[in-house]
Amino acid sequence: MDKLHIGIDLGGTKIESVVLDSKLNILFRERVPTESSKGSIHVMNQIEKIYLKALNSIKNKTHTLGIGTPGSISKNTGLLRNSTIPCQNGLPIDKLIEKKLKRPIIIENDANCFTLAEATIGSGKKFPLVFGVIMGTGCGGGIVYNNKLRVGPQRLSGEWGHSVINPNGNMCFCKKKGCVSTYISGIGLETKIKQKLNNPSSSKKFLNQSNYHKKEKQLLTEFYEFYGIALANIINTIDPDVIILGGGLSNHDGLYNEGLKKVYKNVFCEEPNTPILKNMLGDSAGVIGAAIIGKMN
Ligand SMILES: [Zn+2]
Question: Does the CA dihedral 53-57-63-69 come out positive or negative?
């Protein structure tokens, strides 16, 4: 009998699950709120709740289980770091989830799950080397080559968002100054909007407005400039066959025309042509990728 694949995606506001059949068709999908302010035990209970719902939908049939999480588990300490679910940082969440669900799991960074899903059945499926870029609250990323995820010895592959591009820039949560994320993530752009425009507008609202006065235009140009530098650095380093954008800011059309020109301007060749594409799976990519991770291990 074909195996089924359950994926669970842990997010700052919601925990989502999906069940895929062996051909990666979605059989079931459900979500519950994370409610991380209620603490780590509550979040574990929410994970159990969504898992049992998925399990019930397939009448307890044999399945794999993959989990996508923000941040990653340190190879040295075995503890979660850099998660946007604050109450889970510093915990051995893979072990805790296995204990709670009474079964083995495979756990992976959520941007890696996004990239794997897009490379397998999304915008990247025709390309061998896929670099997935998340431009959401923060900037994450992942690398998939011939349908295999590259994790790296320090579990850092694809973490382009915390490369420093201006040592005199704004302070990032990672305690370095001027990371990519401080310029082109949602939070980074919102900090710039506050600093330069004295205006507490959201990054999405800023990018989607139809008219820009002089100072706004300057900030938008700066945003594209740093986007161009950041993505050209990826291209110059691994020359991917495609870059796929995800996250809340990835719907901004300017990234694919004016932004693209800035990327190509900074690439180290005369006729750059790396495609930069919008994701195909939208919000579902993370949870589908989590299910695929379980399938592959
Ligand atoms: Zn950083």
Answer: negative
Superfamily in which the 4-112+284-296 domain is placed by CATH: ATPase, nucleotide binding domain (3.30.420.40)
Q: Strand, coil or helix: what is 61? A: coil
Burial class (CB in 10 A: 0-12, 13-18, 19+), 201: middle
* Residue 24 predicted with pLDDT over 70: yes
Q: What is the CATH number of domain 125-279?
A: 3.30.420.40
CB 133 within 8 A of CB 141: yes
Separation CA 132–CA 26 (nearest Å): 22
Is the pLDDT reported for residue 1 higher than 80? no
User: Which residue, chain included where needed, has tokens 């400039």?
Assistant: 225
Identify which of 105, 109, 136, 141 has the alpha carbon closest to the alpha carbon of residue 124. Answer: 141
Domain ranges of the chain: 4-112+284-296, 125-279
Same fold: 4-112+284-296 with 125-279: yes
Q: Supply the pTM of this predicted model.
A: 0.94
Q: Which residues pair with residue 245 across a beta bridge? A: 133, 278
Q: How far is the CA of 157 from the centre of ligand 1 (A)?
A: 15
Can you state the percent helix, strand and coil of the chain, rounding each to 5?
40, 20, 35
| pLDDT value at 100 more than 70 | yes
Contact criterion met (CB below 8 Å) for 98 and 105: yes
- Mean of the pLDDT values across residues 274-285? 96
Considering only CA atoms, which of 149, 80, 77, 164 is closest in space to residue 117? 149
Angstrom distance (rounded) from CA 265 to CA 271: 10
Report how far residue 70's alpha carbon sits from residue 143's, in angstroms, rounded to the nearest whole number: 16
Cα(138) to centroid of ligand 1, in Å? 9
Instruction: State in Å: Cα 163 to ligand 1 middle.
Output: 7
**27 alpha carbon to ligand 1 midpoint, in Å?**
38
Average pLDDT over residues 64-72: 95
